[in-house]
């Protein structure tokens, strides 16, 4: 059945569109995006621009577009970004031109992004399909954050506080998907994207 859908979707994607995925840290957005890209190579992953320096192994134009702060500020001034924000002293944003070019070629683009960026996209690209990924519960979200073993308790507490604010905004989105069972969530995403 999934193979049949994949064949159909290659034709259905001719129109091309922007698909925005948002949700709190630890909800599984990145894993869902990676699975979608593996299963549907016709999808394209948006690449963000950033003013931060490349980390070991990161390639310009593949992981990020690495730009100077002055170039980033020019991009803002010239309305070349669909959205942007500053985190930890570095700027991050979604360049408009590559998205518009891919859509013009009939490709659908996935953009995994934070809430504020998704709100900006609603204004700058209103035709985007905006999907919010929800945790099954805050207890499960906390468990997932702790199981990653990436953050100290204080950072996990901050992420959970932020998650409550983000979850309160889920109704602003076209669709909400609860990532309780991964395969079910993935199937719901595929249905939303490909019909």
From TrEMBL:
Give the enzyme's main class according to its UniProt record, as a single word.
transferase
Q: Which InterPro entries match?
A: GK/Ca_channel_bsu, Guanylate_kin-like_dom, Guanylate_kinase, Guanylate_kinase_CS, P-loop_NTPase
* Entry keyword set: ATP-binding, Cytoplasm, Kinase, Nucleotide-binding, Transferase
Q: Which PROSITE patterns match?
A: GUANYLATE_KINASE_1, GUANYLATE_KINASE_2
What Gene3D superfamilies does the entry give? Guanylate Kinase phosphate binding domain, P-loop containing nucleotide triphosphate hydrolases
Q: What is its EC number?
A: 2.7.4.8
Alphabetical list of SUPFAM superfamilies matching this protein: P-loop containing nucleoside triphosphate hydrolases
UniProt-annotated location(s): Cytoplasm
Which segments does the entry list as coiled coil? none
Name the chemical reaction catalysed here.
Answer: GMP + ATP = GDP + ADP
Instruction: Return the GO cellular component terms, semicolon-separated.
Output: cytosol
Stated role: Essential for recycling GMP and indirectly, cGMP.
Spell out the HAMAP family in the cross-references: Guanylate_kinase (MF_00328)
NCBIfam families cross-referenced by the UniProt entry = guanyl_kin
**Similarity comment: family membership:** Belongs to the guanylate kinase family.
- The protein depicted here goes by the name Guanylate kinase
Origin organism is Aliterella atlantica CENA595
Q: Gene of origin? A: gmk
């Amino acid at each position: 059945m999934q193979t049949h859908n994949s064949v159909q979707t290659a034709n259905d994607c001719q129109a091309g569109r922007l698909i925005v995925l948002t949700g709190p840290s630890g909800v599984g957005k990145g894993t869902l995006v990676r699975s979608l890209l593996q299963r549907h190579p016709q999808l394209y992953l948006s690449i963000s621009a950033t003013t931060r320096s490349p980390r070991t192994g990161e390639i310009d134009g593949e992981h990020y577009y690495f730009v100077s702060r002055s170039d980033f500020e020019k991009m803002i001034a010239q309305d070349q970004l669909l959205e942007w924000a500053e985190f930890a002293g570095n700027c991050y944003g979604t360049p408009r031109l590559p998205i518009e070019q891919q859509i013009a070629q009939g490709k659908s683009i996935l953009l995994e992004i934070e809430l504020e960026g998704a709100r900006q996209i609603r204004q700058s690209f209103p035709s985007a399909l905006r999907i919010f990924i929800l945790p099954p519960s805050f207890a499960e979200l906390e468990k997932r954050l702790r199981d990653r073993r990436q953050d100290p308790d204080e950072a996990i507490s901050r992420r959970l506080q932020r998650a409550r604010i983000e979850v309160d905004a889920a109704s602003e989105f076209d669709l909400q998907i609860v990532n309780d069972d991964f395969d079910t969530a993935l199937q719901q995403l595929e249905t939303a994207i490909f019909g």
